[in-house]
Structure formats: C-alpha cells, structure tokens
Design brief:
Elements: E1 2-10, H1 14-32, E2 35-40, H2 45-51, H3 57-64, E3 68-73, H4 86-96, E4 101-107, H5 120-123, E5 127-133, E6 141-147, E7 152-156, H6 161-176, E8 181-186, H7 192-205, E9 212-217, H8 218-227, E10 234-237, H9 239-253, E11 262-264, E12 270-272, H10 291-303, H11 308-323, E13 326-327, E14 337-338, H12 341-350
Parallel strand pairs: 1-2, 1-3, 3-12, 5-10, 8-9, 8-10, 13-14
Antiparallel strand pairs: 4-5, 4-11, 6-7, 11-12
The chain binds nicotinamide-adenine-dinucleotide (NAD), 3-isopropylmalic acid and manganese (II) ion (MN).
Amino acid sequence: MKKHITLLPGDGIGPEIVAAAKKVLDVINERYDYEFTSEEQDIGGIAIDKTGNPLPEETIKACENSDAILLGAVGGPKWANQSVRPEQGLLKIRKHFNLFANLRPVTIFDALESSSPLKKEIVQGSDLMIVRELTGGLYFGQPSERRDNGKSVIDSLTYTRDEIERIVKIGFDTAMLRDKHLTSVDKANVLESSRMWREIVDEIGKEYPEVTVSHVLVDAAAMKLITNPKSFDVIVTENLFGDILSDEASVITGSLGVLPSASLNQDNFGLYEPIHGSAPDIAGLGKANPIGMILSVGMMLKYSFNLESEAAKIEEAVNKVLNDGYVTADLMSDDGQVLSTMEMTDKIISYL
Ligand code: NAD
Ligand code: IPM
Ligand code: MN
C-alpha cells in the first residue's frame, strides 16, 4: 500500500508531537512493509510569520495531493492580538476540504483511572464518542464583525437543513456500530437552530429504529458528562458545543493530551489531530504528551486507509506502556515514571 501524507506541525508543541507521529509512521512503514511518504507544510502562526497567510496556497495544494493530513496544533500568544490569526488557517482547511464530521473518541485507559481528578468509580470503563459538527454554526456564520464604531458586535449562528442532516446521520451510523444509544445535545429551550436540530434528529431517528435517542440540553449535558460519563454512548452536537464538551470530556481520561480526533468529509478524506491546542506553556520543553497525536495516527490508519488491525496495534501499544507505569508530566500519577515526549514515543514504538 502506497500513501502520501501531509504533515502540518503548526505552532507551540505542534512540531514536537508531529515529530512523534512521523516516527510512529516510519516504524509502521518498516514493520508492515507499507509505503507511507510524507511532506511537511506550514499552517497557523508559523505560516503567518513566513507568508502573512495562516493557510498558504502551497499548503492547500500539498494537502489536495495527499491521501490524508496530520496536524499538530496552531496558535499562541505571539499571534493572539492581531486580525490575521493562526486559528483561521485551521478553520479554512476544515472548510476547504468540507471536513464536517469531527469524531472525538473518549476512552479511558485502565491505567489512567486514577489520573482523573474525578472519582475512580465514576470514570472506570468510560467509553463514548463525540460526533461534532465542524464546518458550520457560530464558527462560520456571517456576518461576524464589530459594528457602530466598536460599540456593538455580531456573530451569527447559521445552519442549513442539509448541514444538520448529514452530521446527524453520522451520529446515528456511529451509534449503530456501538451501543446504539445517541444523545443529541442542544439548547432547544433558547435557540431556534437547536429546535430545528432536534426536529431533524427525530425525523432521521425513524430510519434507525434500533437506536435509542435522548435529547439533552447542553448545560445539563456538561454536568452529566462528568457525573455519569458511562450513561453516554454517542453524543452528536453542533460545532461550539462539541468543542467545549470534548475538552471537558478529556478530564474523564486523565488529560487533554491523550484524546485524538478525525475530521472527515463525505468521501472519507480526513485530517487527523489531537483535540488539544498548541500548549504554549510547555512548548519546547519536551513535556508534551504525544498520545493524542499518536492515537490520531491510529485513527488515520483506520478511517482513511482501512488498516483496522494496525490501528488497533497502536492503541494496544499505548495501553501497554501506560499499564507498565510510564506517563508524561500532564498525567497525575503517584508512582509512574515520567517520560519526555520522545521517550514516551520511543516506548510506544518499542511495544508496537
Ligand atoms: P491548550 O489545549 O493548548 O492547552 C490547555 C492546557 O492543556 C495547557 O495547560 C497545556 O499545557 C495542556 N496541554 C494541552 N495539550 C497537552 C499535551 N499534549 N501534553 C501535555 N499538556 C497538554 O489550550 P489553550 O492554552 O487554551 O490554547 C493555546 C492555543 O492553542 C490557542 O492559540 C488556541 O487557539 C490553540 N488551540 C489550537 C487547537 C488546534 O490546533 N486544533 C486546539 C485548541 C486550541
Ligand atoms: C479544536 C480547537 C479549535 C476549535 C480552535 C483552535 C479553532 O479548539 O480543534 O478543538 O475550536 O475547533
Ligand atoms: Mn477545542
């Protein structure tokens, strides 16, 4: 099998974790005799510094000529107070490739049950999937601007029926492959967009009689997620709610640094990235947890290349490393041995 992958390290800890991902890919290449080639391109702050554009044309072209994209993270204090921002590069690439379906699995590794600040009984055995709409809602609504000489501001929340239907279907399809329970999260007590969302979930639900559906308001969902995470199987929700709930859900698993994601379009072309950001507070220190990034490589193998067993091997290797008591600094552990980003990566590779 021959595949070409564009690597987008980005900013902050991005380059450190993408280097980890590349190392894992190279090992899979050798061990399984695949031909994965890759090239690095700029996105985010580093691209602004070099070209003034957070998503240069050259990066888009390279991604268009690839079979998949792996992204580290973008953003940082250096670019926080300017009109051209690194995050615009990420939003643009999601829109350009129509990556509307963001899958964010939240699965706790047994060894990390005591890494969560939540009680062990609560987090033990948690396993849920957040299906987040990624190319609509407040992130992309127009107008979005300051008005009246800065005396007022507007951001717009818009969705078309088609945009809601396609993500809701992914939610149901995902539930069919799991425990057949779908929680649709909205704010239908306040927002018209949520009322339409709820109607569409009920309509499409008729095509999936085996799936049980719950509608939960986002504020209550935020509470339930950390008081009873095991009551969730698949969550389907709009862009901003999914963003917030997924960082919250990472608390169940011990650290934001361990959660991967896949952002897919209708043709299953995908961009894979950990859910966390550029972690400016630890950038360059070799402290970044590479697990979310490495599990994102696993998701790429599974969703883009249909290499399910290789993807499972990556998860097993991570599981074994953690079971043997190795951690990174972000994971609370009483007796674990704390490894750097590259030491953790090498340990995972040694278990592959
Ligand atoms: P963040 O996710 O970067 O960091 C939050 C906290 O989690 C920090 O304390 C950080 O050190 C820690 N953390 C995150 N990932 C870690 C890892 N792999 N290992 C160990 N610790 C980790 O969120 P933030 O500080 O709010 O945002 C920083 C920048 O990142 C902002 O510019 C934001 O826009 C951007 N961001 C980018 C992405 C992305 O590229 N997909 C995602 C989220 C935030
Ligand atoms: C994420 C990030 C992004 C988002 C930002 C950086 C635009 O928080 O991927 O979760 O909000 O989607
Ligand atoms: Mn986020």
